[in-house]
Amino acid sequence: MTVEMKNRVQELLEQKTRKIDAGEETIYLVGPVRLPIQLDGETVIFQWYNWLKLKGEVENFQELLDQLPSLQLADAQQSSVLVYGDFEQAEEALVRMHSICHTGDIFGSKRCDCGFQLKQALRNIVKHRTGAVFYLANHEGRGIGLFSKAMAYVLQENGYDTVDANIQLGFSDDERNYEEAIAVLRALRSKPITLMTNNPNKIQALEEKGMNVAGRAPLWGDVSEYNKNYLQTKVERSGHLSEGGTILHVKS
After folding, report:
1. To the nearest 5 percent, what fractions of the chain are helix, strand and coil?
2. How far apart are the first and last CA of the chain?
3. What is the pLDDT of residues 189-205, one digit of tens each?
4. Which of 202, 210, 203, 246 is nearest to 228 (CA)?
5. For residue 215, how far is the Cα from the chain centroid?
6. Does the active-site annotation cover 8?
7. Could you tell me if 146 and 140 are in contact, meaning their C-beta atoms sit under 8 angstroms apart?
8. Is 176 one of the annotated active-site residues of the chain?
9. Which one of 6, 64, 69, 181 is most buried, by most CB atoms within 10 A?
């Protein structure tokens, strides 16, 4: 690669990368990248961002680029965010903090409602004309990781509910942390948001970091015989908000 080409590559990437201070660590946010999304038979254009958190701060942007091959980023997924509309300036915006779900989002598993919630959040944002879905890579299985989640599923198939299965594996009910996502959200928008969630802990996490959560939009649906107990456990043991505290309209 010639010096001119190397400088051009660095210039293009640096223009699309911003640095977010995270105390003793630094978050590097890349984007926006134009991302056409297939949604209900139509192509909808979102803007995609991805972020990487590193200890300390690199002295210059080329140092960051030089580190990439040695970071082995494919061994651990990174989080990202899909943005639609004028997210920075719009007076009202919907936000979904979505935990990665390998089984539900990718395979379409009916053991949970994650795949439904992801698609419905995107639909709601397009209908609302602005919003963002944060896809949080370190949140698999409420933060216990995919392998531990598989073990938790084994326990669930033998009578343990979601909460007890995680506890029996040595975890708390919910190990998720939202600090990185909140730092990125704050960098992208300072105006109030409406959070799409059934989980009051998510609202509390954002409010404790000073985010202006103006409201909440519930995200229930796709209830079936396969996930009814899972959803009921969310309400009865994890404090998720539901109409009358009951999951209704079970599909056969």
Report:
1. 40, 25, 35
2. 60
3. 999 999 999 999 899 99
4. 246
5. 19
6. no
7. yes
8. yes
9. 181
